[in-house]
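hiii, so i know i said id send this last week but things got crazy w the move. better late than never?? heres the sequnce for the chain we talked about at the cafe, plus the structure i predicted for it. fair warning i was half asleep when i ran it
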Amino acid sequence: MRIMTLRASILGVLGGASVAAMLAGIGPAAQAQDVTLRVHHFLPPPSVAHSQFIEPWANRVMEESDGRIAVEIYPAMQLGGAPPSLYDQVRDGVVDVVWTLPGYTPGRFPLTEVFELPFVAGTAEATSQAAQAFYQENLADEFADVHVLTLHTHAPGTFHMRDEPFDSLDDLEGTSVRAPTRVINDALEALDAVPVGMPVPQVPEALSRGVVDGTVIPWEVARPLRVQELVCCHSEIDADRGFYTSVFLFAMNKDVYEGLPEDLQAVIDNNSGMALAQMIGQVWDEAEAPGRQAAVDAGNQFVVLSDEVVAEMSDRTQGVIDAWVANTDAAGHDGAALLARARELVDQYSQ
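okay and structure toks below
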């Protein structure tokens, strides 16, 4: 049994005062037992998130702790539940660490949505650092139930269409397009598409069965899901700011973190925060090219949307931004100031 579980059980039976006396008599050898962290996430092992982020993170933590921390990774929801349940799993101690999208639970993390608003996001590296800095300044209350390791984003997403591409918004009108979060649903609706919200693991089946006509997704996620084999065409935006991104959370159960001895907390801290956000962003940016190349190799068709179409998209989705600002104001925050700060941070880290 893990020492974390042992201590929790003792607490429940004997109470804090008895536990203090009991642990005082356990001795140093017993207290040096290994801690095993179970990490749960929703993508398959070939994904960039698993193979180039979570596995290397686990290896660093195990190495820097001299083996006192063991890490077990469970991809593709192997421990049960659906992707939207991951936050509650780590909050409640069902698992120790999760990687998930806050946006899978609409309305629960409203301030975090600022980076998902249309044409706010830059590269994954810049926007991930911006999101982490914004968290440190503004989001502690929003994630008070967990110990945040880092926030990050993916590179701006691309439109992947089953039957034909679009190069004007007239072509997009009436098509059903999968979206990951509430904000992106609203943005697609503003473009006269029919948004269909679903977690990304459901995308391949939805495309293959014709449930959706297309999806918005970054290239690096498209490749492990083999989206390029299920669609014919891709409509891309070539601009400094993309149509959208999604914010990801890498978080640890608070009691597990706080129950670690200080030296093991330091190992976790050393593999958290801004440096981790920057590393993830770099990895995801670099993974875009191989993801796109897989679609090239499949013989798919590509359209780069014109500056005029992109400008029209920006104009038509301004209402989504205005609504977020108004809702944020109504909740007692300064929506315009928070939006301006998010954009400022993206600009800062894009330099």
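btw The chain is about 50% helix and 15% strand. thought thatd interest u
miss u guys!!
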